[in-house]
Design brief:
This protein is of the alpha/beta class and 365 residues long. The protein has 13 helices and twelve strands. The protein has three domains: 81 residues, no CATH class; 65 residues, Chemotaxis Receptor Methyltransferase Cher, domain 1 (Orthogonal Bundle), CATH 1.10.155; 193 residues, Vaccinia Virus protein VP39 (Rossmann fold).
């Protein structure tokens, strides 16, 4: 019996394509479009044939994955982009328009404005809820929200995914301690014994509580004697703020907390979590705040807004930087996430203090 030859690249390309389209509700993924996408990919990647004998074809497929993975991935991206923009059939839904209607509906119903967030992030997270509810179009999901308002809470949980931990990016916290020591010395000279810190986008409280622990440790040196410190944590996610108030954390959130701090500032619970001690908990005030549509916390010396800007469009980032500049006291500091940068235009109002730690200082303009 003669074994048939099979192009194994087709198997690999089909798998790549299916995985890439799994959460793509913003484009047409009908069988016609999928067929055209696959044809485009195969026209760009050299064929690799093997017999259909099980052992042989499996070995060749694994080898081809190694040899052609990058090439196939590039072809898949190009195929999705080209075919989705020029499908060979009539479009039944203007997905871009319907997605904007969905964001409008969220704003009208719940007052949360995601319309200036980065679309690619929003679409992935909305897609997770659509897939969970077995919904295949934005129009259908919009109708589902109208009929099932309880879905809003699940949607907001997906849209406001919070990835945080105590003392996230430990090397940054070393620099932050130096910054706070410098700030305390400057304020002591001016006989201004107050420090106000705003943790914007504080999620479930790990960041502002880390600040509270750091300031408590600084106080042991006598540097903050007679100082009044105020730490305000704000977020748009009410569920996360509730978790912050409860202040019970799993071990994953505490991986950067050293043994001394863990013993001094936390109480272990029977379920494996740790409860933050009242002394630190009482040093932080939490409040709901929509960074886009509400006024800022007034007159902080320091604004810490880390890993929040990555969700916003450039125009919204510029708007927020202007808002932070206006809110900060003269000479106040802004700390951003390690993956975030200030655009050149914003350097007219902020100057670099430590580019590696993403620390900037307010300029007077």
């Amino acid at each position: 019996m003669v074994e048939k030859l099979k192009n194994v690249v087709e198997n690999i390309a089909r798998d790549f394509l299916e995985n890439s389209l799994a959460l793509r509700y913003d484009i047409c993924t009908c069988n016609i479009c999928k067929t055209d996408m696959l044809a485009y990919i195969l026209s760009r990647v050299p064929a690799k044939y093997a017999t259909t004998e099980q052992g042989i074809i499996h070995t060749v497929i694994e080898q081809a994955k190694v040899e052609h993975r990058a090439e196939i991935a590039r072809a898949v991206i190009a195929a999705i982009d080209i075919i989705s923009k020029n499908p060979r059939h009539k479009q039944h839904e203007d997905r871009k328009k319907t997605f904007q209607l969905l964001l409008d509906k969220i704003f009208e119903d719940r007052g949360l404005d995601f319309r200036h967030y980065r679309e690619e992030i929003l679409k992935r997270r909305v897609a997770m809820r659509m897939r969970t509810n077995n919904i295949s179009s934005y129009a259908d999901y919009l109708r589902f929200l109208i009929k099932n308002p309880a879905e809003y809470e699940e949607l907001f949980a997906a849209l406001c995914i919070n990835v945080t931990e105590f003392f996230r990016d430990p090397e940054v916290w070393v620099t932050l301690r130096y910054l706070f020591e410098k700030l305390a010395k400057e304020k002591t000279k001016k006989n201004d014994l107050t420090i106000k810190i705003w943790s914007a986008g504080c999620s479930s409280g790990e960041e502002p509580y880390s600040i509270a622990i750091m300031l408590k440790e600084m106080a042991k040196t006598g540097l903050l004697n007679n100082f009044s410190t105020e730490i305000v944590g704000t977020d748009i996610d009410k569920a996360a703020l509730k978790m912050a108030e409860i202040s019970k954390y799993p071990k994953e959130s505490l991986k950067n907390v050293n043994a001394q701090y863990l013993k001094e500032y936390f109480t272990p619970l029977s379920d494996g979590r740790h409860h933050l001690n009242k002394d630190i908990k009482d040093r932080v005030k939490f409040q709901y705040l929509d960074l886009i549509n509400q006024e800022s916390v007034e007159n902080p010396d320091v604004v810490i807004c880390r890993n929040v800007f990555i969700y916003f469009s450039r125009s919204l980032q510029e708007q927020l930087l202007t808002k932070f500049h206006k809110a900060l006291k003269p000479g106040g500091y802004l700390i951003m996430g390690k993956a975030e940068i200030i655009f050149s235009e914003a350097k007219e109002i902020f100057k670099d203090i430590d580019i590696n730690a993403r620390i900037y200082q307010k300029k007077e303009v």
